[in-house]
Amino acid sequence: MIGLSHYLVLSGLVFSVGLVGVLRRRNLLMLFFATEIMLNAANIAFAAVSYYYNDLTGQMFAFFIIAVAASEVAVGLGLLIVLYKKFGTLNLDDLASMKG
Q1: Predicted model pTM
Q2: Rounded to whole angstroms, how far apart are CA atoms 64 and 67?
Q3: Domains of the chain, each with CATH number or no CATH
Q4: Is 34 a residue whose pLDDT tops 70?
């Protein structure tokens, strides 16, 4: 039988994958993807705890996280398109260099 601890371990592993992605990537698009993975790990944990305690609060939090993630993608991808058109790259090392 799959219990709460299984879901929380899965959530922790998925969050760890997202955290490694945030810490290791230098491409802005990959940073957005890794952030989305971390938010989805939080959704898994909230939904699992909500189901375990028979309360809808965790599922409501997961729903709001999905809404925030959707707005983050919409605004973030718009900004990425503008940055790519202006600089021709999405590499953080190239964008961080000062040009004068």
Answers
A1: 0.84
A2: 5
A3: 4-94 (1.10.287.3510)
A4: yes
